[in-house]
Amino acid sequence: MTTTPLHFGWEEWLSLPDLGIPSIKAKVDTGARTSALHADDIETFGPSSKPKVRFTVRPVPGRNDIVIPCSAPVVDRREVTSSNGESENRVVIQTTLSVGGQSWPIEVTLTNRETMASRMLLGRQALLDHITISAHERMLQPELGYDVYHTSAVAKAQPRRALRVCVLSRENNYTTRRLVEEGEARGHAVEVIDTTRCYMAINALAPEVHYDGKRLPVYDAVVPRIGASITPYGTAVVRQFETIGTFCLNGSAGIAGSRDKLFAHQQMAKAGIGMPDTAFAASPKDNANLVGLVGGAPMIVKLLESTQGRGVVLAETRKAAESVIDAFRGLKANFLVQHFVKEAAGEDIRCLVIGAKVVAAMKRTGADGDFRSNLHRGGSAKKVRITAEERRTALRAARAFGLSVAGVDLLRSESGPKVLEVNSSPGFEGIETATGKNLTGLLFEEIERRARPVPKRRRKNAAD
Asked: Which domains does the chain have, with CATH numbers?
């Protein structure tokens, strides 16, 4: 650290780059031990062992329309007595102070200084030995000014902030654990919430999501991991978060649409996305025509509620197909039939889409004697290089449902890639293992890009 002498007056311009505050006026007060920063919406979050705090700063007096969102680790809680004798328990953070070309760490308490002339107070703990104070002068350091808040440079220079992220999941599986592990490694607080234990207060003025008898906080982002068995309730919970205004990595409409196999195929057909010929009928009188619509046997008969290869049958002859269809009808089960792509030879390709990119792909091969390639059924996986057409198809399929994260399953056919399914809650274990990539990290990059709090310029009221 440099020890070039600095000369301060009783008021100075400074910046707090760790908080994304490029310019703020501070009163220099050697009578005060601790520094203080004007903050609103102060909320602590994260585990008790490593708590964080998020808050907003309005750095320009009289301009409540300029708002800087901030977050920082909590280093202490301190009882502070103000000059008028009032005591307040305050959150203490550590941040970098920059002034006169020099920077050093200081501790700052967060409090409401709305009635004070200066939005920040610089106490003696923050003043280094080589700083001299002139109590009768002010602004001895270079003037920074507030004009910077009227430019786009403020938003571009914002630091990466700690986010409060909710993972909606009922399972303690690899993907859930990786989301927590990766999020915390990047400085975020990640909370796993059991979807089925959420309940909702639905009203026009204050819609809320409750959990374990308490209202859930406002999260920066929600990562839905909705199991197929709870799709209706899970999507309702996601929709409630959307109503509140929380960023959801995948929206309720995309999750519901991709889970409804019949609707999903209709949606992909509407978007002109290649898929195996598919047919659906309600009446047993149409069995023969149904088989003919997909080119006859061999063919796939698939329950609409099937997951991970369960409820998917290969009928190798027309007679076998009609028998399976009759059996499913006897169970009053909803199903569809599909053309069997022989040339795929029991292999498919899982493309993982995050944002607007296919970030990884793996080839899955079924166990011996099984036409299904699902890893849950004993299949194996390895990294694969996909073609430009396969990449475009995967992206279009994810886009058809408005999904930011999707596992798109493709078959390689003689007439080009055919989409089997679009999964809105893809597992990460198989594809991270097969590719050796930190795909959970890429998912968090998408969350940080989309959910990152940014400075706001609110419209001023006529009365302001």
From this structure: 6-160 (2.40.70.10), 164-248 (3.40.50.20), 344-447 (3.30.470.20)
Closest C-alpha to 372, from 306, 436, 437, 324: 306
The structure tokens 């959150």 sit at 91
In b/e form, how buried is each residue of 161-175, taking b as 16+ CB within 10 angstroms?
A: bbbbbbbbbbeeeeb
Segment 395-411, tens digit of pLDDT: 999 999 999 999 999 99
Residue 311 and residue 421 in contact, taking contact as beta carbons nearer than 8 Å: no
Please report the beta strands in 30-65, taking only residues with DSSP state E, as ranges in sequence order.
35-38, 40-45, 52-57
Could you tell me which of 445, 397, 449 has the C-alpha nearest to residue 424?
397
CB 125 within 8 A of CB 53: no
Residues recorded for the chain: 464
Handedness of CA 455, 94, 48, 112 (dihedral sign): negative
Q: Are 257 and 270 in contact (CB under 8 A)?
A: no
Helix (H) or strand (E) holding 321: helix 318-330
> Where residue 14 falls among pLDDT bands split at 50, 70, 90?
very high
Q: Kindly list the distances between the CA atom of residue 158 and the CA atoms of 17, 51, 71, 152, in Å, as whole numbers in the listed order.
A: 8, 21, 11, 11
- The model's pLDDT over 69-128, given as tens digits with 9 standing for 90+, comes to 999 999 999 888 776 677 889 999 999 999 988 999 999 999 998 888 889 999 989 988
pTM over 0.70: yes
Q: At what angle do helices 261-270 and 252-259 cross, to 10 degrees?
A: 100
- Nearest partner of 233 among 255, 248, 250, judged by Cα: 255
| pLDDT of 144 over the 60 cut | yes
Q: How many CB atoms lie within 10 A of CB 179?
A: 22
